[in-house]
C-alpha cells in the first residue's frame, strides 16, 4: 500500500471518529414518563391527604407547599445528576462510601443531630431537617456498583471478595440500628444480597450470610418491645384497635371504603385525623380510599414499570460491557421495588408497620430529594446507554462501507485486519469495550445467565 493511500485511510478513520463522537444519547422516555407520573400523583395526593390533616399550628396548605418546594429542589438535583458523566461519579466511589459513614455519625454531633419521636436519624440544616439514611442509600448503591464492576470475577470465585460488601453493609446496619432504623437496615441488606447475586456471587455462598442474618434480625425484633408490639398488632390489628393496632386498622378501613372506584378525590374520611401520617407512611391507604381498587392498581403498575424498565436497562448495559452503569440501574431498581413493596405491604396489612415512604409520592423532604437524585442517575444511565448504542450502530455502518481513497489504489484487494480499518476498530473498542471477545463475554455473570 502506498503512503498516499495509508494517509487517506488514516484521515478517513479520524473523520469517522469525529462523526461518532458527535452522536448524542437520549433519556429513556418510559423512565422519564413514569417518574413524572409518580411525582405528579404525589403532588395531588399529598395535597388531598394533608389539607384536612394539617394542625392548628400550620395552615391547610403547609404540607403541600413544603412537598412542592422539596420536589422543585429535587428536580434541580436530578438535572445535575443527568448531566454528570458516570465515569466522573465512578472516580469518587470510595469517597462516597466514606460519606455514608460520616453522614450516619453526624446525627450524634450535639449541634447537628436531631431527635424525633425517640429516633436520632436527622441532622438539622437550619431551614429543614435531613434524614441521612436517604442519602446513604444513593451513595451506597453507587459504591457497590463500582465494587462489583472492579471485582465481579473475584466475587464469583472467592469468599473474601463476596464478604467485603457484606461487612461494609453490616457496619452501616450497626450504625442504623443505633438510631434506631430497623426498616432501612433491612432494605440495605436486601439491596446488597440481590446486587451480589446479579454481580455473579453463587447463591450457595449467599445462603450462609442470610442464615446468619435472619436469626439476628429476629432477635432484634423479639427483644425490642415496640417492635414486638408491631408484629403482634400486624397479625391481629383488631385485637387492640385503639392501641397498637390503631394505624393498621384505620388503614384497612380506608382501603375497604374505597371499593372499586373510590369515594372520589378529596372525599376521604380516614384522613380526617383518624389515619396517622396520612400524607407520608399511609398515603397509599388514602389513594385506595379516594381512587379505589383501580387507582391502587394504577400506582402498583407504575412502580412495576419503573422497576422493570430499570432492570431491563441494567441488563442491556451489562451486555454492552458497561457494568458500572448496569449495576447502578440494578441497585436503583431494587431500591424502588423493595421500598414501594414494603410501603404498600404495610398499608395492606401484609407486613408489620415500618416507617418507609412511598417513593416519589409520600411527603418527606429527604426522601423526595434523594429519590429525585436516584431518578437522575437512572436517566443518565439510559442516556449513556443510548449514546453508546447509536455509536456502535454508526461504527458498524461505517465499517461495512469500502474505504475511500484517491486513484486506482482503492481497487486493491481487501486490506489485512490491522490495516486501513485500524482507526475504526480502535474507536469501536473504546465505545463498546470487549466487543467480539469471548473471554470478556464469559466473564459477565449477568450476561451469561441472560443467554
TrEMBL record:
Name of the top EC class for this enzyme: transferase
Keywords: Cell cycle, Cell division, Cell inner membrane, Cell membrane, Cell shape, Cell wall biogenesis/degradation, Glycosyltransferase, Membrane, Peptidoglycan synthesis, Transferase, Transmembrane, Transmembrane helix
Family indicated by similarity: Belongs to the SEDS family. FtsW subfamily.
Name of this chain's protein: Probable peptidoglycan glycosyltransferase FtsW
Species per Swiss-Prot/TrEMBL record: Thermomonas carbonis
Alphabetical list of InterPro entries matching this protein: FtsW (IPR013437), FtsW/RodA (IPR001182)
Transmembrane segments: 30-55, 61-80, 92-110, 130-148, 155-176, 182-199, 206-226, 291-312, 324-346, 358-381
Biological role stated in the UniProt entry: Peptidoglycan polymerase that is essential for cell division.
Tree of life domain: Bacteria
Matches recorded under NCBIfam families: ftsW (TIGR02614)
Localization of this protein: Cell inner membrane; Cell membrane
An MF annotation (GO) of this entry: lipid-linked peptidoglycan transporter activity
Pfam family, any one: FTSW_RODA_SPOVE
Biological pathway: Cell wall biogenesis; peptidoglycan biosynthesis
One Gene Ontology cellular component annotation held by this UniProt entry: plasma membrane
Reaction(s) catalysed by this chain's protein: [GlcNAc-(1->4)-Mur2Ac(oyl-L-Ala-gamma-D-Glu-L-Lys-D-Ala-D-Ala)](n)-di-trans,octa-cis-undecaprenyl diphosphate + beta-D-GlcNAc-(1->4)-Mur2Ac(oyl-L-Ala-gamma-D-Glu-L-Lys-D-Ala-D-Ala)-di-trans,octa-cis-undecaprenyl diphosphate = [GlcNAc-(1->4)-Mur2Ac(oyl-L-Ala-gamma-D-Glu-L-Lys-D-Ala-D-Ala)](n+1)-di-trans,octa-cis-undecaprenyl diphosphate + di-trans,octa-cis-undecaprenyl diphosphate + H(+)
Amino acid at each position: 500500500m502506498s503512503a498516499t493511500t495509508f494517509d487517506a485511510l488514516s484521515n478517513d478513520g479520524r473523520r469517522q471518529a469525529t462523526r461518532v463522537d458527535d452522536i448524542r444519547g437520549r433519556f429513556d422516555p418510559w423512565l422519564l414518563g413514569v417518574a413524572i407520573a409518580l411525582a405528579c400523583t404525589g403532588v395531588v395526593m399529598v395535597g388531598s391527604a394533608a389539607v384536612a390533616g394539617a394542625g392548628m399550628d400550620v395552615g391547610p396548605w403547609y404540607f403541600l407547599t413544603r412537598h412542592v418546594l422539596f420536589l422543585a429542589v429535587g428536580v434541580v438535583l436530578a438535572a445535575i445528576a443527568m448531566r454528570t458523566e458516570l465515569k466522573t461519579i465512578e472516580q469518587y466511589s470510595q469517597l462516597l462510601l466514606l460519606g455514608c459513614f460520616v453522614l450516619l455519625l453526624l446525627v450524634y454531633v450535639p449541634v447537628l443531630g436531631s431527635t424525633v419521636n425517640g429516633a436520632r436519624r436527622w441532622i438539622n440544616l437550619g431551614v429543614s431537617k435531613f434524614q441521612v439514611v436517604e442519602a446513604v442509600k444513593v451513595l451506597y448503591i453507587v459504591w457497590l456498583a463500582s465494587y462489583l464492576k472492579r471485582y465481579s470475577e473475584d466475587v464469583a470465585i472467592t469468599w473474601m471478595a463476596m464478604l467485603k460488601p457484606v461487612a461494609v453493609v453490616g457496619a452501616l446496619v450497626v450504625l442504623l440500628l443505633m438510631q434506631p432504623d430497623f426498616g432501612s437496615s433491612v432494605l440495605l441488606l436486601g439491596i446488597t444480597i440481590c446486587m451480589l447475586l446479579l454481580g455473579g456471587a453463587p447463591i450457595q455462598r449467599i445462603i450462609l450470610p442470610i442464615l446468619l442474618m435472619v436469626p439476628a434480625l429476629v432477635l432484634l425484633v423479639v427483644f425490642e418491645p415496640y417492635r414486638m408490639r408491631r408484629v403482634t398488632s400486624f397479625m391481629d390489628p383488631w385485637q387492640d384497635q385503639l392501641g397498637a393496632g390503631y394505624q393498621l386498622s384505620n388503614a384497612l378501613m380506608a382501603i375497604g371504603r374505597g371499593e372499586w372506584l373510590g369515594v372520589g378525590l378529596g372525599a376521604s374520611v380516614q384522613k380526617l385525623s383518624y389515619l396517622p401520617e396520612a400524607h407520608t407512611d399511609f398515603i397509599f391507604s388514602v389513594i385506595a380510599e379516594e381512587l379505589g381498587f383501580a387507582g391502587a392498581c394504577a400506582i402498583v403498575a407504575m412502580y412495576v414499570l419503573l422497576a422493570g424498565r430499570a432492570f431491563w436497562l441494567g441488563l442491556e448495559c451489562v451486555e454492552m460491557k458497561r457494568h458500572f452503569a448496569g449495576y447502578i440501574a440494578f441497585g436503583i431498581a431494587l431500591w424502588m421495588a423493595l421500598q414501594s413493596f414494603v410501603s404498600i405491604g404495610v398499608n395492606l396489612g401484609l407486613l408489620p408497620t415500618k416507617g418507609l415512604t412511598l417513593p416519589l409520592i409520600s411527603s418527606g423532604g429527604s426522601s423526595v430529594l434523594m429519590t429525585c437524585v436516584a431518578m437522575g442517575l437512572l436517566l443518565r444511565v439510559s442516556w449513556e446507554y443510548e449514546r453508546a448504542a447509536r455509536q456502535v450502530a454508526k461504527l458498524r455502518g461505517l465499517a461495512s462501507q469500502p474505504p475511500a481513497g484517491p486513484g486506482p489504489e482503492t481497487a486493491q484487494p481487501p486490506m489485512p485486519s490491522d490495516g486501513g480499518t485500524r482507526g475504526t476498530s480502535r474507536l469501536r473498542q473504546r465505545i463498546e469495550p470487549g466487543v467480539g471477545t469471548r473471554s470478556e463475554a464469559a466473564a459477565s455473570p449477568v450476561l451469561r445467565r441472560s443467554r
